[in-house]
Specification:
Layout: H1 17-27, E1 32-37, E2 44-48, H2 49-65, E3 73-77, H3 82-94, E4 97-100, H4 107-117, E5 121-124, H5 127-137, E6 146-149, E7 159-160, E8 185-190, E9 200-204, H6 205-218, E10 226-229, H7 236-249, E11 252-255, H8 262-269, E12 273-275, H9 278-293, H10 297-318, H11 325-345, E13 353-356, H12 363-370, E14 376-382, E15 387-391, E16 405-406, E17 410-414, E18 419-424, E19 430-432, E20 438-439, E21 448-456, E22 462-467, E23 472-473, E24 479-480, H13 482-489, E25 495-501, E26 508-514, H14 518-525, H15 534-539, H16 541-556, E27 564-570, H17 589-595, H18 597-603
Parallel strand pairs: 1-11, 3-4, 3-5, 5-6, 6-7, 10-11, 12-13, 13-14, 26-27
Antiparallel strand pairs: 1-2, 8-9, 9-19, 14-15, 15-16, 17-18, 18-21, 19-20, 21-22, 23-24, 25-26
Length: about 600
């Protein structure tokens, strides 16, 4: 591979991830690279880049002693903890291929992945995970022969993780490290499986580095920026943002192993960048709105005025225009006096780049955050495109509600039926087959059919409609985007989640879920006392009347085919642990429809 050209006197980008780690250890040895919570819960343990190189070298020797070699797949099922991050890099330095598995994966999914990638070794977090994986050791159809268990004292009959670094590293071992080539597999990422079995997406060093370079060209960030890592490493977004881009940028990763501690970690770290899938931004917006509602009326009016100024300032930037001096001055004053103190309470006062991806972002949520001076740069891409294929950008332009324009490593076009197609340097090699081969998914000209439907405007911005396979076709032959309808319904704070149903039906119905944070706050503000019981709230006449009004208001903004005629209000939030959402918080529509089949049938009863 020809190294990427250097700019501004900087050396060319190394062509593989191990060479990037080596470069960081030499050029920035003392710069913080990785931090995680101390075992006692107080403070952070931090490794600099020189220590990362040294530690991953010792780990690589430990894995090699277990028989792991170049090209071998190794399965990893852990939270976002140091052992996961460091093992990933250690295996890559060895020339092996790390494969992270979602902690919420069902046993049949784990079995499918283990068989598909033919891994002989799995590294799991503790006794619970070991109990799920252990039956595969006796499964003759599965190549798995050994488990490594990370949590001390929970290994049982399996190898403790600590044993990997006990033996001295042979003097000649260094010659076995960092020899991977640009076109060697860097990882296999299994799709999260909204439908069907997970598919193994093979990504090479070349493809990952191409995407990293393209993203750097689109975003504006200080050097060596902090990143809070909380999404699963089995998701392409966190692999790029939490492993590959920090290596590429020699930046600083903070590991947040407990996703419920994200807000507290943000307040402590005060990062310069923050990525959240839409559901994260929705939940944060609910929390901020609830806080604003508690302010004295005069102070609340002051915040609302500041937010109006911020939105006007963003609107000029969105149009590509320079805000007039008086607006610039007003915004600077409002930001310093009103907005920054609000953002500081949540740890977002230093943030310079915020983004979202994975699913269509509700426009009202984007507009809300723009009123706080935070422009969420919505992006779009697939595991198969090594993550981001299009993005909004403060550098190259943005349109709120769109997913931006293609990054420099890809081209995007529309097929005749409106399906988005992508080709370029960061499009994947293909899907891993059980015999070890890789099946390409692009056509003869290199175009990948993404399964997403959308449009491209005259300025090159991409606007998503929905997943092609999730489009609803009514009995009258009309096409409806469920995401459009669902996001419109969720604009009311009481409605936290929504699923629209109506394939081959004459009208749409919906399952609506009360927001567990916003609903009690709304109830308290309106004198509804149910003791915090969400089920009682969902049945309360005042709540039902308000949701009726919310659905009616949403219907006024939808065309006749898109309008929801009936709905069922639910109290229990959908989540990954209960199976209705993927680990990246996308809806598993089939699961939800199956579990609520009786309610959906009743909604169509005359």
């Amino acid at each position: 591979m020809t190294p990427a050209p250097s700019t501004a006197g900087e050396p060319a980008t190394p062509s593989t991830l191990p060479l990037i780690v080596e470069h960081n250890a030499r050029a920035h040895p003392d710069r913080p690279a990785l931090s995680w919570r101390a075992p006692d819960g107080t403070g952070w343990v931090t490794l600099d880049w020189a220590q990362v190189r040294e530690h991953t070298g010792r780990l690589a020797a430990g894995y090699a002693a277990l028989g792991v070699g170049r090209g071998d797949h190794v399965l990893l099922m852990m939270a976002d903890r140091s052992e996961h991050w460091l093992s990933d890099l250690a295996l890559v330095r060895l020339g092996a291929v790390p494969v992270s598995v979602y902690g919420t994966s069902a046993p049949e999914q784990i079995r499918h992945i283990a068989r598909n990638c033919r891994a002989a070794l799995a590294v799991v977090e503790g006794a619970v995970q070991a109990g799920v994986w252990a039956p595969l050791l006796d499964d003759t159809a599965t190549p798995l022969t050994r488990l490594v268990v990370v949590e001390p004292g929970e290994e049982g009959p399996h190898l403790p993780y600590a044993a990997l670094t006990r033996a001295p590293v042979p003097e000649s071992f260094g010659k076995s490290l960092d020899t991977a080539g640009p076109d060697d597999p860097l990882t296999v990422v299994y799709t999260s499986g909204t439908t069907g079995e997970p598919k193994g997406v093979v990504l090479t060093h070349r493809q990952v580095i191409a995407n990293a370079l393209a993203l750097d060209a689109a975003v504006e960030l200080p050097p060596h920026v902090e990143h809070i890592c909380y999404l699963p490493f089995a998701h392409i977004a966190e692999r790029m943002l939490g492993i590959y881009l920090p290596c590429h940028r020699a930046s600083h990763v903070y590991l947040c192993a407990d996703p419920t501690a994200v807000a507290a970690t943000v307040r402590e770290v005060r990062p310069r960048q923050f990525f959240g899938v839409p559901r994260i931004w929705e939940k944060l917006a609910v929390a901020v709105r609830a806080g604003l509602a508690l302010l004295p009326e005069e102070q609340r009016r002051g915040v609302e005025k500041a937010m109006e100024v911020a939105r006007e300032h963003v609107a000029f930037r969105e149009r590509g225009e320079t805000p007039p001096p008086e607006l610039e001055e007003a915004y600077a004053r409002m930001r310093e006096e009103v907005l920054q103190p609000l953002l500081a309470a949540g740890g977002l006062d230093r943030v310079t780049w915020t983004a979202s991806a994975s699913a269509p972002m509700p426009l009202d949520v984007v507009r809300f955050w723009s009123g706080l001076g935070i422009v969420i740069m919505d992006a779009w891409g697939l595991t198969e495109t090594t993550g981001v294929a299009t993005t909004n950008s403060p550098r190259t332009g943005f349109r709120l509600g769109s997913v931006g324009r293609p990054v420099s490593s890809v081209e995007v076009r529309l097929a005749e039926d409106g399906e988005l197609e992508v080709r370029g340097a960061s499009v994947f090699s293909g899907y891993l087959q059980q015999d070890g081969s890789v099946r390409s998914a692009v056509d003869d000209d290199g175009w990948l059919a993404t399964g997403d439907v959308g449009r491209i405007d005259d300025d090159g911005y991409v606007w998503l409609t929905d997943r092609k396979k999730e489009m609803i076709i009514t009995s009258t032959g009309k096409n409806v985007s469920p995401a459009l309808v669902e996001n419109t319904l969720k604009e009311h704070p009481l409605i936290g989640q929504a699923l629209v149903h109506g394939d081959n039906r004459s009208y749409l119905v919906a399952l609506l879920v009360l927001d567990p944070e916003a609903a009690p706050a709304w109830a308290a503000a309106h004198g509804v006392d149910t003791g915090g019981d969400l089920a009682a709230l969902a049945a309360h006449p005042a709540v039902r009347a308000e949701v009726d009004r919310a659905v009616a208001a949403a219907n006024t903004r939808l065309n006749r085919t898109e309008q929801v005629k009936r709905y069922r209000l639910l109290a229990r939030e959908w989540g990954p642990a209960t199976g209705e959402l993927t680990p990246s918080l996308k809806m598993r529509r089939r699961v939800i429809r199956d579990r609520h089949a009786a309610e959906l049938t009743e909604l169509y009863a005359d």
